[in-house]
Amino acid sequence: MKRPLTLRRYLVHFSSHNLPQVFTDVLVLGSGVAGLNAAIEASRTASVLIVTKARLEDGCTNEAQGGIAVALAPDDSPNDHFEDTMEAGAGLCDPEAVRILTGEGPERVNDLIRLGAQFDRRGSELSFTLEGGHRRARILHANGDATGAAVEGVLTRAVRERDKVAFFENAFAIDLLTIDGACYGALIWSAARGLMMVRAKQTVLATGGCGRLWRETTNPQVATGDGLAMAFRAGAALQDLEFVQFHPTALYLAGAPRALISESLRGEGAVLRNRAGDRFMQRYHPDGELAPRDVVSRSIIQEIKKTGDTHVFLDATHKSRRYLERRFPTITRLCDRFGLDIASDPIPVRPAAHYHIGGVAVDTEGHTSLKSLLACGEVACTGVHGANRLGSNSLLEGLVFGYRAGAAAARACQGLGEAQPLHAIQGLPQEAAYGSLNLADVDNSLRSLMWRSAGVQRNQADLDEALEMITFWCRYVMDKEFDDPQGWQLQNALAVARLVVMSARQREESRGVQCRTDFPEPSDHWQRHIVIAKSGEDWL
To answer: Does the pLDDT value for residue 15 go beyond 90?
Structure first.
């Protein structure tokens, strides 16, 4: 007889009576562009503690290549950027949020420049490039194809210089602490300090995405969906989890990381070819390689199925080695390490999980459905991306809505008294799991299943299989108590994967990045959001 599948409130047994407590005005979980910008803005009037599970510099922001989409060019305007974003979002964008993104974006990018960001220029003028779905060349870049690292570096230096900002690196946030529907901080673990409670007047969730749930992904090791799982266990509403953007061109070589091959390379003339050398994208879309990302990803999958290959090729051999080394130094060096000279050799590529459009449901200031909990960046669902994110809008979203969340958190702290110690929170003991499970095997099986059954193309049978298998694994993993991040990450990954699959099954249409081969067209019935929230221990 099967046991009922329940989701307990806290992953570990603890009592507030016997744990050390740290106090701050604003707790920021995560250290990408959104979290760092939130911390900078909040620190103008409030004390801030940043907790991040690796180093401050680690994460998806640091890996971003293409750039920041922003209407700063003389021939561009926020309204043009608004219209392109709305069109890409396939009918599900929040117009107010998009107006904020495109209207406030230029000032937030100028903030970066004032902090010392060195974006590429032609003479004294900023240099912009073109990407798919944009009517203008509005992609600002730094060091060729290392924009994320430049942005992360500037923001990291800024927070390290602020007296009101402290940070715990290599510290794992296990759970949000809640009483009566309000957040009071988080339960944190680190090898150096063990378990502790961080007590905060306001908590900002900025933990990034969940790309590591899929076997093929451009995301770093830290992107395991922890923030989504924490928020769900705490009772926050999650939205649009089915919308996962697969980047069309990730490096596909045995032994190589599935590194992003920036869309900017296609924006500057690189073309996609099959093994026979035929350029194929014009058969699928009139914009060819500059079609929206979801179109290019699906087209590559279709071409792979037709030819029986595992990948296609991105051809930039019409460009000189000197040009490629200058404009795309990161990609050039990466391919060099594997014996590919991109000036003479086509790059083997295929789609990979890249960006989670869904997330914790928030308003335009980052407020969630839980009092005193805000969210920003990839972990949040602001509505700016709708059903399909326009390329290079992600760093801009982190800047704009991280700033807004930090400002809102600081305002909420004003007039509040000092945080008091908590003596009413307790996690109940569970069955210990020490040494009883091969966690790496479960994780690898989950990632393979998600790629096979909830990847670029989906259907009812595959999603049913995925839900059945994930539910089965949950029955013997979720009720165990682990004592290190490997176990907690797996429990988080299983929880988020199950919610993604449930949402993808429910949306019986194809819209944006959600491609259902059994429901190939969009439906007016589904021009709405799917919102999920936990009810007690009920898994829906």
So the answer is: no
Mean pLDDT across 347-376: 97
**First-to-final CA distance of the chain:** 20
- List of domains in the chain: 21-243+357-413 (3.50.50.60), 249-351 (3.90.700.10)
- Joined together, the tokens standing for residue 279 give 């350029």
Other C-beta atoms closer than 10 Å to the C-beta of 284 total 17
**pLDDT tens-digit readout, 237-260:** 999 999 999 999 999 988 887 888
Among residues 307, 312, 308, 250, the alpha carbon closest in space to that of 281 is found at 312
The catalytic position among 293, 327, 505, 507 is 293
Contacts of 134 (CB under 8 A, 6+ apart): 69, 84, 390, 391
Tens of pLDDT, residue by residue over 186-206, are 999 999 999 999 999 999 999
121 is an active site residue: no
Under a CB-based contact definition with an 8 Å cutoff, are residues 26 and 39 in contact? Answer: yes
Tell me the torsion sign for CA atoms 529, 522, 497, 293.
negative
Give residue 479's identity as a one-letter amino acid code.
D
**How much is the pTM?**
0.94
Proportion of the chain above pLDDT 90, given as a percent:
77
DSSP designation for 29:
E
Helices (H) then strands (E): counts for the chain: 14, 24
- What DSSP line would sit under 230-286, residue for residue? HHHHHT--EE-TT-EEEEEEEE--TTS---B--HHHHHTT-EEE-TT--B-GGGT-T
User: In the β-sheet with 68-69, what is the strand arrangement from edge to edge?
Assistant: 68-69, 139-140, 128-129
Q: Return contacts of 435-441, CB within 8 angstroms, 24+ apart.
A: 436/480, 437/476, 437/477, 437/480, 439/486, 439/487, 439/490
Token pair in block for residue 524: 């007016």
pLDDT tens per residue, range 108-130 = 999 999 999 999 999 999 999 88
C-alpha–C-alpha distance, residues 118 and 238, integer Å: 36
CA distances from 165 to 45, 170, 208 (A): 11, 17, 20
279 and 273 Cβ atoms separated by less than 8 Å: yes
With beta carbons less than 8 A apart as the criterion, state whether 194 and 184 touch. no
pLDDT tens profile 39-57: 999 999 999 999 999 888 8
CA distances from 493 to 98, 185, 477 (A): 30, 22, 11
Quick check: 527 and 91 in contact, CB under 8 A?
A: yes
Strand ranges, E, within 388-518:
426-427, 431-432, 480-481
**Each residue of 290-309: pLDDT tens digit?**
888 888 999 999 999 888 89
**Total residue count of the chain as it appears in this document:** 540
CB-based contacts of 386, cutoff 8 Å, min separation 6: 86, 88, 89, 90, 91, 92, 93, 94, 357, 512
Q: Please, which residues have CB within 8 angstroms of residue 444's CB and are 6 or more apart in sequence?
A: 215
